[in-house]
Amino acid sequence: MTTRHAEIAGAGFAGLTAATALAQRGWSVRVHEKAPELRTEGAGIVLWNNSLQVLDAIGATHDLMSKSMTPPAYETRMNNVIRSQETLDGISWRTLTRPHLFATLLYAAREAGVEIVAGSTVRSATADGEVTLASGEKATADVVIGADGVGSAVRDSLAIPLERQRSRDGITRFLVPRRKEQLQALEPDTEWDNVIDFWNLEPRVLRVLYTPANDDELYIALMAPADDAAGSRVPIDLELWTSVFPQLAPVLEAAATVPGKYYGYQTTRVESWTRGRVALIGDAAHAMCPALAQGAGCAMQNAWTLAVAADETSDAAALPAALERWEQHERPFTDRCQDRSQHYADTREMANGNQFSGDVVETALYNPTDPRRHEVQHA
Ligand code: FAD
Ligand code: 5PR
């Protein structure tokens, strides 16, 4: 059999996962990354069973575990009063930095023999599997993957209709030193290894999500409505934030020394994830609010299932139909996750605590690598 080939736009979490899974199945894979250097933006991340299973399936678990942690609990506070401490029993989850996840995926991709071209922008793609690069070069592939983020050129060049919903809140994210002893000195009774979601809704909506990422690094996300000029300002308004969260002063001071960027929440929904031989994955297909911490999780889950679906279809002519079936099977999980994340972002209901139970954890528990996952369960 001749080697099948994939052209992928975007070396983010989605593109690198799909590339690795295909290359490990014997495909030749070329990834185009428009940035001149391979790296990730952003600070920390929470991964759940769905993406942890994918990382395990591509052989990346050892690397991932080396610099990540599972905090003892996910604590929620309102005006500094504890509302809940969820130990998330039965759910696998890890906290880590984005650079660490990126390095883990990049290593796996290179080990698998993926070709990654930095400084290469994909301009457009056609349904029959041709990509055109900014350099003018054209290439054809059995599968073209648009993993080029929320502003996807692949998606837009195919004129796939898109709906965009913006939320009133947004967030600034930082990686700072843990400074655990200083925090402990300020609040000795606090378990500073927990994720702590510090909410304040009255008199003003200001929230700090405190997420230890490993022994040395802390991920903090500062949420404020977009129309709160001081709350959404970068670099952060240190006086404002420390006046509301005095026990976090040591780490807020560290955050104030970096420029930062305020991201408004948005949800995008496309009419279809596929057009012929082209498939969209990750934020190109389904950007979501971060409330459930599942944007990258869904990206990696769909990257994996796409690679398996494409690989299992050896008849080239049958590939477009196989991609459509992939979307039919997998998309409902992501659609529901987007809806739930949007709901939490709209209502700020997570501030009530005890938010990780019932339907909400469907995606967190999902195992996209289980070949029997879509079988109907008979009692
Ligand atoms: P991206 O990361 O956007 O990668 C796309 C890549 O494509 C980029 O490298 C870009 O440079 C490149 N590119 C773009 N256009 C082109 C082109 N034309 N040609 C070639 N290359 C191109 N998710 C979680 O799972 N857990 C979390 O805890 C979490 N927290 C979040 C917090 C915030 C505040 C936000 C905003 C998001 C969060 N997410 C989280 C979501 C997550 O960051 C994204 O869903 C995820 O990074 C999407 O990955 P991607 O590979 O699809 O896109
Ligand atoms: N979880 C995570 C996160 O980064 C955010 C949220 C939840 C890991 C915000 O950035 O609720 O917005 C959230």
Automatic annotation (TrEMBL):
The keyword Membrane does not apply. Keywords: Dioxygenase, Monooxygenase, Oxidoreductase. GO terms for molecular function: 3-hydroxy-2-methylpyridinecarboxylate dioxygenase activity. Gene3D superfamilies: D-Amino Acid Oxidase, subunit A, domain 2 (3.30.9.10), FAD/NAD(P)-binding domain (3.50.50.60). InterPro entries: FAD-bd (IPR002938), FAD-dep_Monooxygenase_BioMet (IPR050493), FAD/NAD-bd_sf (IPR036188). Its EC number is 1.14.13.242. It is an enzyme of class 1 (oxidoreductase). Residues 8-340 form the FAD-binding domain. PANTHER family: MONOOXYGENASE, PUTATIVE (AFU_ORTHOLOGUE AFUA_6G14510)-RELATED. This is 2-methyl-3-hydroxypyridine 5-carboxylic acid dioxygenase. It comes from Microbacterium trichothecenolyticum. The lineage of its organism: Bacteria, Bacillati, Actinomycetota, Actinomycetes, Micrococcales.
